[in-house]
Amino acid sequence: MRPRIPAPFLLLALLGAAPAAAQQAAAGPAHPVVVAVPAAAPEDVASIDAIVAALYDVISGPVGEPRDWDRLRSLFVPGGRLVRTGSRPEGGVGIDVMDVNDYVATSGPRLLQLGFSEREVARRTERFGHIAHVLSTYEGHSQDRSLTVRGINSIQLVNDGSRWWVLSLFWEAEGPGSPLPQEYLPRG
């Protein structure tokens, strides 16, 4: 009987990856990693509207007000990602892939120092079965209004039958070379 090779590793094998690596992966990791996620408030994960509102709420607050980072962690599947992208001043595009703890470590102190509020101003949602993709147009500002941003969050969600989870949050802020398209702005 041949070992069952998970689809991603089968694809790697078909593309010429080392067969030994695929066989080792099929056997499973030597030491499974268990990532604990704090329990979510049921009202935060009951619907697409609720989980998107919780994402915006958890990062917003005045100068010096600690954010509830466990609340943010509770929204994401273990291993979920936050991905910031945008044009670099020197040219090209920067892509910064983070897990939730990376985001807390890099953005948390700045949010606390500036006081920052972000809100959704428009949304497009596509849903099929247990998955959803939300394109959420946002605007945000620092407490003293010295920093103002707009952009689009691309949020991938999954419902496991009992709640919604964020798989990834991928965003780009509006910039001089990339204004927000009209179809992603509030209507009327």
Low-confidence stretches: 1-27
Helix proportion: 25-40%
Instruction: Please tally the helical runs, counting DSSP H or I stretches of 4 or more residues.
Output: 6
Quantity of strands, as a count: 6
Q: What's the shape?
A: globular
Q: Summarize the helix and strand pattern as letters.
A: HHHHHEEHEEEE
* Rg calculated over all Cα atoms: 19 Å
Strand content: 25-35%
**Widest sheet: strand ordering:** 2-1-6-5-4-3
Q: Name the assembly state.
A: single chain
- Major beta sheet summary: 6 strands, mixed
Q: What is the distance, rounded to the nearest whole angstrom, between the alpha carbons of the first and last residues?
A: 63 Å
Question: Would you tell me the structural class of the helices and strands?
Answer: alpha+beta
**What number is the mean pLDDT?**
86
Brief description of this entry?
By secondary structure, the chain is α+β, with helices and mostly antiparallel strands. It has six helices and six strands; from the N terminus they run H-H-H-H-H-E-E-H-E-E-E-E.
